[in-house]
Each structure stands twice: as structure tokens, then as C-alpha cells.
Amino acid sequence: MASSALLSIENLSVFHGQFQAIHDLNLEVAAGEIVSIIGANGAGKSSLLKAIMGRADRIEGAIRFEGADLAGRSTAAIVGGGVALVPEGRRLFPSLTVEENLNIGWEVGTRGDVGFEDVYGYFPMLRERRRQKARELSGGQQQMVALARALLASPRLLLCDEISLGLAPTIINDLYEIIAKIRDRGVGIVVVEQDIARSLAVANHFYCLLEGRINLSGRPQDTTREIVAKHYFGV
Amino acid sequence: MLAAIVNQILQGVLLGGLYAMFAMGLSLSVGILRFVNIAHGDLIVAASFLLLTLTSQLGLPPFLAVLLVIPVAFGGGYLLQRLLFQRALGKSVLPIILVTFGLSIIIQNGLLGAYGADTRKVAGGAFETATLALGDGVNIGVLPLTIFLTAVAMIGLLDRLLYATRIGARIRAVSDDVATADLVGLPSARIYAIAMGVVGVTIAISAGFMSIWTNFDPASGPSRLITAFEAVVLGGLGSLWGTLAGGIVLGVAQSLGAQVDAAWQVLAGHLVFLTVFLIRPQGLFPRS
Fold first, then answer.
1. CA nearest A77 in B: which residue?
2. Are A80 and B185 an interchain contact pair (Cβ–Cβ within 8 Å)?
């Protein structure tokens, strides 16, 4: 495990009203590594990401980013502090142009070293379509905008929620190639996926969630697909 | 006879400018903040009474008084949204409607207590009665013309604000999907408050013109609200230029109705509204 963790989650419990979505979870992400969170629907993956972004109803335990506890901070402060999310389902602003969507990503972020030229370099198609409304793009193109929007915040920690959902395999490959490049720039990345194989292929570390608890974690090369599948389904 | 009808139609079109002014603030709050502010008309009347005080008590010229009230109205709108409306926004539309309804009652009774029930008007001087003769018996009032041109300019500026500025893009983003805005780190409560501040500015300017052109009393708010609401719905919810068209349709209908019989003035506006609404419920220029 990384000694100087970028993100360090200690004994985290997350509640939605009376319902407890996460139980006593511990997790670390270092700069320049990809951590995969895998788990079935309802295992608590999205609740975990929401909690990191400061949008959980109530949490117990600590979420430390670069040593500072994020508890009580607004989402705007968390994003401005260097954490960006690619939300599940892309969640663009449909009536805004591609450029306006991207610009919002830049404005809410750390205003760091990632600029429009960088994301247009990753996704040349976005430059061509920058004046088009986000709602007019295909699903894959929208996912590129969603990833580019998060990148423009120049995050040091990037959270990706189900970015491959509903996309063609070639597009998913492209997206993950870019995610690997971002990792190589020293960004810590958390990838949440339902696709076990994809998740393990890109990850430096993985955590498997079942009913809000981690029941398996480690490095992908130290385990087998069968063991992971067993823990994933809880059998 | 022809000149009389042309005069009435012209008068109606210009009156539509005032109605569009009432309506554009409501259009912004419906289109962006997604709620109907029942107190919208009362806020216009409250701003008119403030202008009355500034002009009659302090002796300020109306134009200067409006310039002074504009920043106050922006701040007032900002704080009203931040401290009151924002707390009532949520999963259900009922709380916010009840809160604005309550505010409407508070404003009406507050004004009644402070100013009494008398009908008032702000003196606009020579500007009020000046007319331009266009020939053939067709005349146009300088005040109504100024109101109309101001309304067009305001819509043009609001359009620029929404579509060509940073804050405009943020306002549209929050209007598109507030949950996503919150999730990616946009401060939606502050953006809503700024939008309501802009609504406040439209209220101050419409109050400035309304208080010179028409009579008002503490109970005038609801009728202004109805007019604004009809113009918004006629134009198409959330469409600013549609709001101008809606205002003009109402203004012309009222003005021609008044030719038939004085009692028909307001009724004709409502009837045209209902007819258009039945045929084209999405409005004349629905926002795509």
C-alpha cells in the first residue's frame, strides 16, 4: 500500500437517511495509480464516490485528501481543492455547447495545468464539435465531454463512475487509454465499474464491495478472476 | 376611423412593452429557478411605492430614483432567494408556492399599513404627456414608446447575459440540471441567488415605468402577476422574446377590447389568452 496516500479513507460509514450504504470502509489511493472499485448494483460504489464529493446525507469516519479531512466541505470547495468526478450517466448540461460544458469544468476546478489544448489533444473530435449542444452528441462523445470536463478541473484525484456503461468496446478502449495517460501524469484515479475484467486490467489496486463492505482487496496480479467473481457475487 | 384603430393597435403594442417588462422577470424565475413567484406582482408594486417615496418625499427625479433602486432590487432579489426561497426549494413544488403566496400577503398588508389604501402615481413631468405625431391622425406617446424600446433593450441584454457571459452559462447549467451542477462543484444556491437578483433589476425598471404610466395601490400586485403570467405562457415558458410577443398580444387585445366597451379591456386580454392557450398550449415561441 502507498505510504504517502493521496486519498485515505478511514473507518467510513455512509448513511442515506436511516439506510447505511457503507460500513466501516478503509481505502487508500496514491498519486499516479488507478484504484478500481468493483461490486454489483447496490454494493455501495456510487455512495462511496458521493461521500468523497461531499454529497452524502451523513458520514462517520474520515475522508482525507492530501492529509486534510474533507468532512463538512462543500462540493465546490472539494472540486476547487483538486478532486473531480465523472458522474455516472455522463450528466452533461444538455442545452449548453460542448465548449460551455468544458468551460464549467475549468472554472470550478483548480485552474491548474490542464488546458483546453490538452483535452482537445486527447479528444480531437471535441474541438470540431465545440459549438454543438451537448444533447446532440452520441453517447460515446458525451462520455468524452464528461471526462474532458473533469480533466479541465486539473484534478489531482479523478473519480470515474461507470464510464463504460452503454458504450461500444472500441470507445471504452479509447477512454481507458486516456485514463492510463492521465495516471502517468501523476493523477490518482478511482475507477468504479461493474465490468470485472475491464476493471482489473487497468487497476494497480482493486477493492471489491459487497453490501457496503470491502470483502476483497489487493493487486490484480495477485488474484484470479474466479476468486474475484466469488467475492463480487458474495457466494 | 382607420386612424383610431391604428392608434389603438399602436397603443396596444406599446402597452405590450410594459407587460413584457412585468413578465420577463417572471419568465426568468420560471425558466431558470423553476418556480412561479406568486409575489412577483407585489414586488413590482413594492418597488413602485419605494420610488414614490424617493420622488415625493426626497424630491428625486424619477429617472434618478430608478437608478438608485436598481442595485437595491438586485441585492433584495439575491437575499430573498438565498435566505427565503432557497430554503423552500426541494422535492415538492408546494412549499415554494406557499412561501411566495405568503410573501404576497405580507407585502400587500405591509404596504397597506405603511401607505394606506389610496391609489397612487408617480409624477413623470412633461415626459408623461409628450406625443409624436406620425401624420394622418396617428399619434404615439413618448412615454409608451420609451417603455417599449426599453423592454426590447432589456430582453436583448438579458439574452446577451444568458448566452454570452460566464455567469449566463452557469445560470443555464443550473437551469438544465441542478443536481449535476451540485455534483460537479457549481455553487447552485449562489447562482440561483444571482438570477433572482437579475429578476430584481427587471422588477425595479418595470416599477419605474409602471408607477409613472399607471395608477397603483397596495392591492395591485395580483393583477400585475396575472398579466405577467399570461404573457409568459402566451410567449412560451422560459422564452424571453416570446414574452415580448405575449405582452404585445395581450396589450393589443386589451386596447381593442377597450374600443368595444371600457369593461372589455381586461376581459379581452384574458379571452385572447385563453383562446391561444387552448389552441397552442406550448405558447407562441416555446423554448426548444
1. B185
2. yes
Does residue B225 belong to any structural domain of this protein? no
Grid cell 394606506 — which residue?
A: B116
**Confidence (pTM):** 0.91
Mean pLDDT of B111-134: 91
Could you give the CA distance from residue A162 to residue A182 in angstroms, rounded to a whole number?
17
Binding-site residues on chain A for chain B (CB distance < 8 A): 53, 55, 74-76, 78-80, 84-85, 87, 91-96, 100-101, 103-105, 107-109, 149-150, 153
| pLDDT tens figures, B141-184 | 999 999 999 999 999 999 999 999 999 999 999 999 999 999 99
Q: For chain A, give me the number of helices (H) and strands (E)?
A: 9, 10
CB contact under 8 A, A76 and B183: no
Distance CA B148, CA B126 (A): 18
Give all strands of the β-sheet with A19-30 in edge-to-edge order: A19-30, A5-16, A58-65, A68-69
CB atoms inside a 10 Å sphere around CB B49: 21
Query: Which residues form the domain of B213?
Result: 21-218
Domain count, chain B: 1
